[in-house]
Design brief:
The protein is of the alpha/beta class and 413 residues long. Helix content is 39%, strand content 14%. The strands form 4 sheets. Strands 6, 9, 10 and 11 form a 4-stranded antiparallel beta sheet that branches. The chain starts with 9 loop residues before the first helix and ends with a helix.
């Protein structure tokens, strides 16, 4: 795929080259470089002399950052605005939440998924957005607005969306997987990877046994977590970003993962393929939000607006493979991505897809606790082995005590 490039007004480019000056606010686009052009009627340089650094916290491998000959949208933002970007990454919603709750770091822009946005809203962790500073929100498609977790989009602007499915190596499987149950197939023991986060892993096991991805009770959580335990002997490793090296390198036969990342992996290894399991998949949207304690809120809103520029959205979609909620970006996509059944699945997939709800506190706590228990169980081996090891340890300890008592008895004689 080749990113389409935009022409822009030369006069705007000349003005932009001088950072302390105010650019002429015209309807023309401003050319930042040969790949990135932005709206000319937005004041991009109003913070140019304020020495601001934005702390942006996003998923790993989730932005066009200049690697692998991609467009560096972050450096283009810095050139455009004079604002520096300190960009760091996380690998799951749960690790993002834990970092935020710890208070150990301060961020200006974060990118959680829908259920985590809802959780953070309920806990007062997000700031309401001033959409006067985010006019590009108007290009967000109606179908990606007004979700239950943030019905008026008071706190969130969609970044990308996608679905889950199974990525598999066509040279390592006898038949293409069609069901989540294929991830439990013992013939692929030690050749299956699994999500290393509670919500995605739970969702797969739930669909396998005919439950909703959104548990209705603590008992339901226990039932599904027990199903995950039955998979443990088959699983080679629980992974997140590590999946790229493992699947691209032919180190595993199959794994569940996100469709956008599957496109990237297939590009790197043509032996890989992707399927949406027949039981139904997760349909998710990741959104840009501003934490309640952000130090640079207005500059953060500028960054969010920039990420919704058509040329920036194109660069991101071209590089990361995820699906766009921006109407103009979708219109400009190359046909091989625009009509990809992986990135933009048909009604047969979407009508059975489920969105994660924000869970009640008791159910959420049960899921977290039982996930941790399940992982500890995995790391320590199977249950019978733990019992055997405990019995052996007790026997050794008893034998050593007996030897000492016997020796002391002999010494008395």
């Amino acid at each position: 795929m080749k990113l389409k490039r935009f022409a822009a007004a030369a006069s705007a480019t000349l003005v932009l080259a001088v950072f302390g000056a105010t650019p002429a606010l015209a309807a023309d686009e401003i050319e930042v470089n040969e790949d990135i052009s932005v709206s000319g009627d937005y004041d991009w340089t109003r913070f140019a002399n304020d020495h601001i650094t934005l702390n942006v916290y996003n998923w790993g491998l989730y932005i066009s950052d200049g690697s692998d000959d991609s467009v560096n949208v972050l450096s283009a933002f810095e050139d455009l605005t004079g604002i520096k970007v300190n960009y760091t990454t996380f690998d799951s919603n749960e690790s993002l939440y834990a970092k935020m709750k710890s208070g150990g770091a301060s961020y200006d822009v974060i990118v959680p998924s829908e259920y985590m946005v809802g959780k953070m809203i309920s806990e007062g962790m997000l700031a309401p957005l001033n959409f006067d500073n985010i006019p590009n929100f108007a290009d967000i498609g109606e179908e990606y607005r007004g979700w239950d977790f943030d019905p008026d989009n008071t706190y969130s602007v969609p970044y990308t969306w996608g679905t889950t499915g199974i990525i598999y190596n066509t040279t390592m499987v006898d038949e293409a997987p069609t069901s989540w149950a294929d991830l439990w197939d013992v013939q692929y023991t030690n050749d299956v990877l699994m999500f290393n986060n509670s919500r995605d892993a739970y969702a797969i096991a739930a669909k396998k046994i005919g439950y909703s991805m959104n548990p209705q009770s603590v008992d339901e959580v226990s039932t599904v977590m027990n199903e995950l335990k039955t998979q443990k002997n088959v699983v080679q490793a629980y992974v997140m970003d590590e999946i790229f090296d493992k699947m691209e390198g032919g180190e595993a036969a199959m794994a569940p993962y996100y469709a956008g990342d599957a496109i990237t992996m297939i590009d790197e290894n043509p032996d890989l393929a992707f399927v949406h399991p027949e039981e139904g998949v997760n349909f998710f949207v990741d959104s840009m939000c501003i934490p309640a304690n952000a130090k640079n809120k207005e500059a953060a809103e500028m960054f969010i607006n920039y990420m919704c520029e058509t040329s920036v959205g194109l660069a991101n979609c071209d590089f990361i493979g995820y699906s766009t909620p921006l109407t103009e970006v979708w219109n400009e996509l190359d046909d091989d991505l625009k009509y990809s059944e992986i990135a933009y699945p048909g009604e047969d997939v979407m009508e059975k897809a489920e969105v994660f709800n924000t869970l009640p506190d008791d159910i959420n706590a049960a899921m977290d606790a039982q996930w941790s228990e399940m992982k500890s169980y995995e790391e320590g081996g199977s249950g019978w082995m733990v019992v055997v090891m405990l019995v052996v340890a007790i026997a050794i300890s008893t034998f050593n005590i007996w030897r000492k008592l016997r020796k002391k008895s002999r010494d008395n004689y």
